[in-house]
UniProtKB/TrEMBL annotation:
Keywords: Immunoglobulin domain, Signal. The keyword Signal applies. GO terms for biological process: antigen processing and presentation of endogenous peptide antigen via MHC class I. PANTHER family: TAPASIN. One of its GO terms (cellular component) is membrane. It comes from Knipowitschia caucasica. This is Ig-like domain-containing protein. It comes from the Eukaryota. Residues 156-266, 285-386 form the Ig-like domain. Residues 1-23 form the signal peptide.
């Protein structure tokens, strides 16, 4: 017969029990990694099985007697979370939703740490009696990248599973403009009834990208001391950390090289929980067209234009060319001939598009406007140049008004000259008569 903490149950039955009981905490499917042998090794599909987590609080609990075993779910755990972190709406999507939280449950072995900013938490060699129990770590990522939480769970007996430590982030994904400040959310909770509460804590932030990484900063909360190695421009709100357990990382001015995965780890004596966040630096391109000014174009002439997009990150960029006539009609000309990316000194990228345009496509005497459009995750940018073609066409209203103005000026000039010469001839005739 199955043990109480591993009672078999179908998912449909479990969900129906929760809805009938009007529970506000979820029942979620979770990949449970069976305890490995002494050989250790990474978790594989062979030692991962489906389980159900019945999340409950002190005020609202599920009735274990109402659970009936079924063969399709291998293990069931009733987990009490006084903090309510596991009852977040992002971990309990509406019934019928395609997206589900991703959950993994693993065995955990409490142990001290030798890290300089963590070691003071376990300055004695004795292991507290409180640690003599089964320990698990549940890592759950909610839907729509809204939340991620890791909870350390203590099981003094198989029928009792209590959350002792939780680390949570509300910013699983953060996008920031280049040079702007960024806030990576992280907070933690320790069970007030456990002996670990008030015994000190440490916070560690690490950066990882493509297999490599480094320490961003480490903080010994017990002795109020920062690690000697820390990234420039990275800090914590220490007052909020001690008062509200807010361990969020503050980056004062983001750089391209800071895109990647950030891991927030919170240590208490012998235990640690961590969550991962993604930071993406996004900067739209600066777009320009060369040549930016053109003289009058001769019909039949072939023109070459270069559109330059520079200073953007990430790489994704789509060019397009547009030709707008004098009536506002837009014609698409394609993306042109696009170059490969070039990386600048600031790690941003540049790229160009080359377009050859036959002036016969333009209205003679009217021309038009040529635009280069660059679509980027950071926003769409465009640049335009005016085109004027020599030719014959019916004059526009503006042309007619200009001609009238020129005619008036010429008429006035002719009248002035005529008056001047006429007056001079009259004076000469009067002088001859007097003589």
């Amino acid at each position: 017969m199955a043990k109480f903490s591993s009672v078999s149950l179908s998912l449909l039955t479990a969900l129906s029990l929760v809805r009938v009981g009007r529970s506000t905490c979820p029942v979620m499917q979770c990949w449970y990694t069976l305890e490995k042998g002494r050989g250790g090794g990474l978790a594989t599909a062979a030692n991962q099985v489906q389980s159900l987590l019945f999340i409950q609080t002190e005020e609202e609990k599920h009735d274990p007697e109402s659970v009936k075993p079924a063969p399709d779910i291998d293990h069931v755990f009733f987990i009490t979370d006084p903090s309510g972190s596991l009852c977040h709406r992002a971990l309990d999507p509406p019934k019928g939703s395609i997206q589900k939280p991703h959950c993994e449950l693993n065995h955990l072995q409490p142990q001290p740490s030798s890290l300089g900013w963590v070691a003071p938490l376990t300055d004695t060699d004795q292991s507290p009696l409180f640690l003599q129990a089964q320990w698990f770590a549940a890592t759950i990522r909610g839907v729509d990248q809204e939340m991620s939480v890791t909870s350390v769970i203590r099981a003094p007996v198989e029928s009792q599973h209590n959350v002792i430590l939780s680390v949570t982030t509300q910013t699983v994904y953060v996008a920031a403009r280049l040079g702007d400040p960024a806030l990576l959310d992280c907070s933690y909770w320790v069970d007030p009834s456990s002996p670990l509460h008030g015994s000190g804590f440490s916070v560690e932030w690490r950066y990882q990208f493509r297999g490599s990484g480094h320490l961003v900063l480490g903080y010994d909360g017990k002795n109020d001391r920062l690690s000697d190695i820390r990234e420039q421009g990275a800090t914590l709100d220490f007052q909020s950390l001690h008062r509200d357990r807010n361990a969020s990382l503050i980056l004062s001015q983001t750089r391209v090289k800071q895109s990647g995965t950030y891991i927030c780890s919170v240590h208490v004596p012998h235990l640690v929980a961590q969550v991962a966040l993604e930071l993406e630096i996004i900067e739209p391109p600066v777009v320009s067209i060369h040549p930016s000014q053109l003289p009058l174009i001769v019909p039949g002439q072939t023109l070459t234009f270069i559109c330059d997009a520079s200073g953007f990150i990430p790489l994704s960029l789509v060019f397009s060319w547009e030709l707008t006539d004098s009536q506002g009609n837009v014609r698409l000309l394609g993306q042109g001939s696009v170059s490969s990316h070039k990386e600048g000194n600031d790690a941003t990228y540049s790229q160009t598009s080359r377009l050859q345009l036959d002036s016969s496509q333009l209205e003679q005497g009217r021309g038009g406007k040529l635009s280069c459009v660059a679509e980027h995750p950071g926003g769409t940018r465009r640049a335009s140049v005016s085109l004027n073609v020599i030719g014959f066409s019916s004059p526009s209203i503006e042309d007619s008004m200009a001609l009238v103005g020129v005619a008036l000026v010429l008429y006035g000039f002719i009248k002035f000259v005529s008056w001047t010469f006429t007056g001079s001839d009259d004076n000469e005739a009067d002088e001859k008569k007097k003589n």
